[in-house]
Write a structure and sequence with these properties.
Strand content: under 5%
Order of helices and strands: HHHHHHHHHHHHH
Shape: flat
Number of helices: 13
Helix content: 55-70%
Distance between the termini: 76 Å
Number of strands: 0
Largest sheet: none
Length: about 260
C-alpha cells in the first residue's frame, strides 16, 4: 500500500509543468541541450511521454519554458515599481556627479535605480554562469521571438529603472537596449570562456594560457594586447562585469538625463 502511494505521488509530481521544467533544467545543466531529450526526461520523471506532451508540445516549447523560468528566477531581485512615475521622477544624479555614478564605494541607496540595475545585471550574470546553456537560449529568444515572454521580461526589468533614473523619453529604448545587450553579451562570453574546450578545462589555466599567448605576440603589431595580457589573466569576472555596467551608467547620466 505504501509503495503504491509513493508511486502515485511521484506520478502526480511528474505531471506538473513546474516539475517538468525543473527536471529539464537538471538535464541541461548536466549535459547541455543535446542531453535534453524526451526519453531522458521521461526516465528522470518516471512517467510516460504522453504525460509530458500534455504540458509541452515539443522540445522547442520546453526550451522556451525552461529559459523563461530561469530568467524569471534571476530577475526576482527586482520586484518593486519605482517610487515615482517616469513623468515626475527626479534624476537620481546630476551630470556633474556622473564620474562617481555606480562606483563600488558609492553611497547610493539600495533602492536607487543604479543599484537595481546592478542587481538585475548580476542576477542574469550569475544565472548564465550557473547554467552555461542559457546564453545560447537567450540569444535564440532575442533573435527569433521578441514577442515571447523572455525578451519583454528582461527589457521591463531594465527599462523601468532607466525611466526611474530620469532618462529622457526619446532615449529610453536606446539606453535600455544598450544595457541589455551589454549584460547578455558580457555574461554569455564569460560563461563561454574555456568551456568550448571541454568540461575538464580549468578556467584559470585557460586564461593563463591565453595570457602567455598574448605576451608572445609581435610587440609592434599588438602593443596594447601585450600590455594588458597580465591584467586579463588576473581579472575578476564579476568585478569587470560590474565595472562595465558603471561605465554605461556614467555615460547614461552624462548624456541622457535632462539638463538643468
Amino acid at each position: 500500500m505504501a509503495t503504491r502511494t509513493r508511486r502515485t505521488q511521484r506520478r502526480t509530481e511528474a505531471l506538473s509543468r513546474e516539475r517538468i521544467v525543473e527536471a529539464a533544467v537538471e538535464l541541461l545543466d548536466a549535459a547541455g541541450e543535446g542531453g535534453l531529450t524526451f526519453r531522458a526526461l521521461t526516465e528522470r520523471l518516471a512517467t510516460g511521454p504522453g504525460a509530458i506532451y500534455w504540458h509541452v508540445a515539443n522540445k522547442s516549447e520546453l526550451l522556451d519554458a525552461v529559459t523563461d523560468a530561469v530568467v524569471a528566477a534571476a530577475l526576482a531581485v527586482e520586484s518593486a515599481e519605482p517610487a515615482e512615475s517616469a513623468g515626475s521622477a527626479e534624476p537620481a544624479e546630476s551630470a556633474e556627479s556622473a564620474g562617481s555614478a555606480g562606483s563600488a564605494g558609492s553611497a547610493e541607496s539600495p533602492d536607487s535605480p543604479q543599484e537595481k540595475i546592478r542587481a538585475v545585471a548580476l542576477g542574469l550574470f550569475d544565472a548564465i554562469d550557473e547554467h552555461p546553456w542559457l546564453a545560447a537560449q537567450l540569444t535564440a529568444q532575442l533573435s527569433r521571438s521578441l514577442w515571447g515572454s523572455v525578451t519583454p521580461r528582461i527589457l521591463e526589468s531594465i527599462g523601468r529603472q532607466v525611466r526611474a533614473l530620469g532618462v529622457v523619453e526619446g532615449s529610453q529604448f536606446t539606453v535600455a537596449s544598450a544595457l541589455v545587450h551589454y549584460i547578455l553579451g558580457a555574461a554569455g562570453q564569460n560563461a563561454a570562456n574555456g568551456r568550448g574546450l571541454g568540461p575538464d578545462v580549468d578556467r584559470g589555466e585557460f586564461l593563463a594560457a591565453a595570457s602567455r599567448a598574448w605576451q608572445e605576440l609581435d610587440p609592434e603589431e599588438y602593443p596594447f594586447t601585450r600590455a594588458v595580457a597580465e591584467q586579463m589573466r588576473e581579472h575578476d569576472d564579476r568585478e569587470q562585469f560590474l565595472a562595465g555596467i558603471d561605465l554605461i551608467l556614467t555615460g547614461i547620466i552624462t548624456l541622457h538625463l535632462p539638463r538643468g
